Amino acid sequence: MRAVELVSPPTVSRRHALALAGGALLTTLPFSVSTALPAATARPVPSRGFNLPGWFEREEGIAPATATLEKLRQAGFETIRLPVNGDLVSDGDRAMLRRIRDGITDLVGLGFAVLVDMHPSGDLHAAFEHDPANAARRVVQAWTALRAVIADLPTRSVYPELLNEPPMERAAWLELRQQLAETLRARCPLHTLVWGPARFQGIWEIADTPPLADDRQIAAIHYYAPMAFTHQCENWDASPLARIANLPFPTTKEMPQVRELVSRLRATGDEEAASLVEKELSDPWTDARIASDFAELGRWSSAHDCPVILNEFGVLNFCVDPASRAAWVRAVRKAAEVNHIGWAHWELDQGFGIIASRQSTEAFDPQMIAALLGDEGGD
């Protein structure tokens, strides 16, 4: 997901030559993670999770309070996807690597599975557009450093994710994906690797993407359809989505509420936003439509004997009806579970969030928690 990067403070680029070889990076540090961590319950596909951006994407990221994590774990969440800005570790910064190690250790100690997501900064994302070879080298450098942390963490609890939303064409990504897998396998032979299709990790992009030639892998996809609903009132760029508001779910273009919105947009001369709503809702968006999408994903998983996780999905809370937001999230979560697909919601406490603050155990959104974890009234 690119949105949160744009509303978070800018990251600091640390692109220099590697100071130390990844294989020897942490060997002199006075700790041994593997002996300090409790045995983890095997999780073939991590699930019941949420994303936790804003911690390791900048040097002064904000860690969640332990009490908040404990409450989330007690509520029933089992997995945390942890975005990491590779530029912060690619030069072998020992202090940053130690912070990441300590953070993952704490999460595992609380009973969470952790997806360590290589999440490109805005600068690295742009580099893939104007200098893709250099950008690829930067990602390899980052994993060469970070693999030393992963290698000393439990294989049943920690899952390295090769690259979020790979910003390149399919053929280039398959080549880099193989290189990243080999980089990690050199130090992490037993950890399960997570990867998604280029370029948006969309559910529609995996159909022609082959799995890795690896016995320990999970394919990861993102789902935000229809964007006119999930991203209405977004505020980080000039997209017409910013001018769409109060769409319900389930929805069709014939609903009076939708027709009124389209008419109002056209009356103000906003043909771009009006046309986007009509295009996005050319077919009805209902629980059945979502179920169909995930049934197709389930068939891909079965055909390729490759497990799948939905590690991003969510709805902005800026101007949507809370009941519609919860209904969409519940429909997606249930469709994933029916097809044996793990899931991790985007995200914890920002625009798509389910709690007010990672520093507080107050103001959890009960409607969203129920939509994600199940409730008698909705399941």
From TrEMBL:
One of its GO terms (cellular component) is extracellular region. PROSITE patterns: TAT. It is a single-pass type II membrane protein. Coiled coil: none annotated. One of its GO terms (molecular function) is beta-glucosidase activity. Pfam families: Cellulase. Residues 41-346 form the Glycoside hydrolase family domain. Glucosidase involved in the degradation of cellulosic biomass. Active on lichenan. This is Exo-1,3-beta-glucanase D. The lineage of its organism: Bacteria, Pseudomonadati, Pseudomonadota, Alphaproteobacteria, Hyphomicrobiales.
